[in-house]
Amino acid sequence: MKSKEEEEEEDVSYRRYFAVTHARKVLRQRFPTKPGALQRNQLMAKLQGFEFWKKTLKEACFVVAPMVDQSELAWRLLSRRHGAQLCYTPMFHAQVFVRDANYRRDNLYNEVCEEDRPLITQFCANDPEVFVQAALLAQDYCDAIDLNLGCPQMIAKRGHYGAFLQDEWELLEKMVRLANEKLSVPITCKIRVFKELEKTVRYARMLEKAGCQLLTVHGRTKEQKGAMTGIASWEHIKAVRQAVNIPVFANGNIQHLSDLKSCLQETGVQGVMSAEGNLHNPALFEGRSPPVWEMAEEYLEVVRKYPPCSLSYVRAHLFKLWHHTLQIHQDLREDLAKVKTLDGLADVSKQLKQRCQEEIARGTDAKKSGDLPFPHWICQPYIRPAPKEPVANGNQTSEVKKTVCQKRALEDSDGAGETLSKNKQKKRSRNPKKNFSPEQKPKYIKCEQCGNPKGNKCVFSLCRGCCKKKAFKEVADCPSHGLRFKTKADKRKAEEEERKENEKLDGSAPEMKKGGGSPQPLADPHAELQQQTQLPV
Question: Could you tell me where this protein is found in the cell (predicted)?
């Protein structure tokens, strides 16, 4: 006979066995033919440098760039069908990824697909600990983690990430080194160049020394964006490739397959990444320029096959694909912007296809209608026009293109821009009396900590986010922001004291009963006798 302790130990061992068996079964169901990243990371050591590029990334040469709200699962699968060998996820915000389980599920966990490999997940971050926490949550669903050091947009400047960290080498070195130590997958980086060639090389070497296993170099500075985009410097990319001993991907100036081959030959990199060129022509890596409707229909088919996909993502992709055609058929452009279902988007795309086929049947020569190298219904890159030089009186009679594009002044800068942006011009057309003068805008006092507008009546003279952190830390109230940490703490304290007082009173009651409580008055014998005589016989 087994003792009770032996039976309990046997029961525990059985439970462990069934738990492990169930976990293995789930992994087999999830990855039926190939071992997933979680299994691979446990079974083999982390690969580095060229070994990682050759074995894990399978010597990928044609790469789809990470694009916010654009490189989602459906688009990645479409690109892979047409020659892409490696894809990146959209950029994820590390802090939100750690904090919000729904954000993780909707953007990464729900997009697990066997066909979507190899895959690199990109994060933006400015805190080493938060970056590593986010990467640990994502490493089992991808082949590497990428740190975004190349985003030049204003939102990256406000959030203090992307290309606006490229001067903080000590912070970047710490982030990359910590990730390289803690993660079971390699860490990669995507950067922009400095104007100085030598500084760019030292920057790349610093990241390599910190533990970066693959470097993507966008050959533009952080100032080259929008109308100032200009031409990417392959000279900088070539210098980085010759200076480091890890694989390098090039990014910039890729509009056709011939550009890609020229970049490989001129720079000597291991792979070439495409962003806008891929958005306007998903078959770029095949060297084809198919009709737009062919790519649009195939993309919609993939979206239906791999739901869910945000409608805003689908709409944005169709706008990119049909860009040149929508310049002609403006009525369908408005329809494409207004429809709110996937079937509605597919219907507008079908109408655009019919109109293009009617033009082809009529033999319309679309080449003469603009500067496009192909008819507007053919997938082809979009080239930004150079900004026009405004005349002092406001009439654009002189339309000479400038060799060096002058960037329009930012809204938050001190100087006032001479011309309005396209969005503001549209607003003025709807409301001619609207004033866009920066001098007449209300000036907000900035928060002392983050630079956002502070609350007018804030106790700490901070914005709501900073005020909430400080009020929580100091257990204080801020009526202006509706924060009641001190009030709630006092209320909880009062309730606790009242509860303890009640417990004391409840504890003294049984003692009163046990000790007899207060003495009862003695009965009067004369009163009892009088009551008995009054009773009926």
Answer: Cytoplasm; Nucleus
